[in-house]
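Example 368, ligand 3,4-dihydroxyphenylalanine.
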Amino acid sequence: MTNDAISNLPDYSDAALDQAFSSLESQVREEAAALSSSESAETFRLRWLGRKQGRLNEVSARWLKGAPPEAKKALGQRFNAFKAVVEALLDEASGSEPSDAALAAEAIDITLPGTRRLTGSEHPITRTMNEIVQVFTALGYSVGVGPEVETDYYNFESMNFPPGHPARDTQDTLVIAGQERRPLRERLLLRTHTSPVQMRTMEQQPPPVRIVIPGKVHRNDAQDATHSPIFHQVEGLCVDTNITFSDLKGTLDHAMKALFGSSVKTRFFPSFFPFTEPSADVQISCIFCAGKGCRKCKQSGWIELLGCGMVDPAVFAFAAEKQPAYDPKKISGFAFGMGVERIAMMKYGVSEIGQFFAGDMRFLGQFV
Ligand code: DAH
C-alpha cells in the first residue's frame, strides 16, 4: 500500500478539485480491487476511514479546514460523494471473501448467448421407413426384421433363385470372404434385399401371415445420384386362403394413396421376380405434374416405384419344409418390396441419394 500523504491543493478552482478527487478515487478503487481477505478489508477501512489517521480525515483537515468560504460548498459536495464511494467499496470488500478481480473473472454475463444443445430428430430415411410401415400396421400387418448378414439359402435359394441362375446376377452381391469351403447355401453375404425375411417369417409361423419388413440392404453398386451400396427396403408379405391379385392391387393402391395423397393413381405392369408369379412393377401417377408429363417423369406422367407379385408356389414349397401348412394347393399370397430412399427422395425433393448418408448437418438439419 502506498504511504503517500495528502498534499495541499494547488488552488480551489472546480478544475483543481475535480482533478484532486478523481485521482483519489482511482487510487481507492485500485486498492479495493486488490483486496482479497476480510483482514485486508479491515486494513483498507483503517487506511481510508480511520478516525485518527484515515486518509479521509486528512483530506478534511488539509483541504476543508483552510478552504475559502466560497469554495466550501463545492469541496464539501465532492468530499461527501467520495466518502460514499469509499464506504461502498468497503461494504463490497467485507461482504464477500474473493476480490473484485476474482469475482469479475467468475462473473456470468447473462447477455451472452447461451450454449445451445442440438435437439436430435429422426433421420429422413428412418422417418420415411416408419411412415411406410405405419400404412401397413394400420391395415393389421405386424412388423418383422431379419439379419443383414444372411446366408445364400435365405437371400437366394429359398427365394427361388437356384444356384447359377442368371437372376442372381441382377443383384450385385457383396459376399463375406473366406467362405469357399462351406456348402453354397450356408455361405454368408450382405443381404441384397429384405425378401429373405419372408422365408424366415414363414418358417416361424403357419399362415395366415401379414407382415412388413423394414431394413437395410447392400449391393455392390457404384454410387451415383440414385444408387448407393447401402440402402433400405420395406418388404411385405400376405398369405392366407384365397388371396388374389385383386387383394394385391387394392392393398398397394391404398398404400400409395396413403403415402403420396389420395389423388395418386397406380398401374401395374408385367415384370419378373423369381419369387413371384405373376410379377408386376407398380407405377404411380407423377406426383410432380399430376400425370401431365414433366422432366421428373420423363414426360410419361408415371413413375415406377415398387415390385410385387403373387408368391411363387416354389417359395411356398421351401416354407413347407418347416411349416407344412404352406401348401400351395390350399393357400396363396402376395408380396411386394419398395426402396425407401427412392420414396424419401420423391417426398422431400432430394436429388442425390448420397446426401442421406453424408452426415452433413446442413442437409439433415432441414428435417428437424
Ligand atoms: N426383392 C426385390 C428387389 O430387391 C423387390 C421385391 C419385388 C420384393 C417383388 C418383393 C416382390 O417381395 O414381390 O428388387
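Summary: The pocket of 3,4-dihydroxyphenylalanine is lined by residues 193, 195, 235, 273, 276, 307-309, 335-337 (CB under 6 Å).
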